# Entry
Amino acid sequence: MKKVQKEKLEDLFERLAGDGVLYLPLEEDGVVNFAPWKKGARVNLEALNTVLPPKRAIFPQTETYMRFETDGKKLQIEQVEPVEGNYFLFGVRPCDMAGIKVLDKVFLDEPEDDIYSRRRQAGTILSLGCNDPHVSCFCSAFDLEPGFAPDADVALWDVGEVLLWKPLSEKGEKLTSSVEDLLEDASAEEERAAEEQRNSAAATVAAAAREHGWNVEGVEEALQDMFEAELWDKLYRRCLGCGICTYICPTCHCFDVEDFGKWQEGERFRCWDSCMFEEFTLHASGENPRPTQKERVRQRFMHKLCYYPSNFEGLYACVGCGRCVRQCPVSIDITQVIKEVGGVKSGS
Ligand code: SF4
Ligand code: SF4
# Structure
């Protein structure tokens, strides 16, 4: 295993930023989000969850993919290249990496989404294990480990003065060779420290999951018979339909396609959408198959905990990051749904 001294991180960032766009958790006005690094930026590798997940680098909030121009009856279409070049996502937490895997299943499955696929290939992801998970983290409920992201290209662990560095993929190996002069061999003691931190973080999250009954075993099956359950009546009444829970979610991937035009020219873009909005399923005819907030709230939980795992071999479309639990203005809490659905395996 390798390591990089924290005092050399600025040099490393400069090197990476010279090879592509380097996205890091940057702090601005007390808010931490992944954004392109530049010299003097305030990097915050302590923050557990950025407000918005790093998926924005691969699946941007708004993206133009076509421009058009008309001249009488003639129409000219120009394809907009989706990939601007290489990029690095540095400091991605294991839950957010698992969120990217959920997006991969959707966008890279047949028929493959070319825009997403090209962006995904252009990126190298460096994950950062969590040492001290938040009280609302419940990744272990989905068999994820807070201290390690096996699907990243490089895994990093913060052990004090250094970040330990382990390449996990071909891209990760390539990156490691390209910055070798900034890396050193990690000592056995440092490796042991990382291992201990991993175990301790896993134990913390598992203990919280046990204490609160956050266990998804059996939830997918139970929900299959709960389309008409009273649970949805109880939940939907306080939902504001603000969509915050979906915008901040690392696994949500719904988008809308729209044209914006002026006179003879315009562009086609896609932008994030939310199943919590009334217009999401509104047909041009005025018909709406999800006419009230009840159907929308039910859809959000059903999709994450029942439909998605049914389609993707048991993989849930929630990774337990806890963002929606912390940020829903009326405290609608997915862990409560998990508990109430009765998939609780108490004491396990
Ligand atoms: S954040 Fe809460 S109030 Fe807003 S749409 Fe989601 S569940 Fe409803
Ligand atoms: S549903 Fe909530 S807890 Fe689960 S991944 Fe999305 S934001 Fe995180």
Notes: Confidence is low (pLDDT under 50) at residues 344-348. The pocket of iron/sulfur cluster (ligand 2) is lined by residues 248-251, 304, 318-325, 334 (CB under 6 Å). The chain has one domain: 2-341.
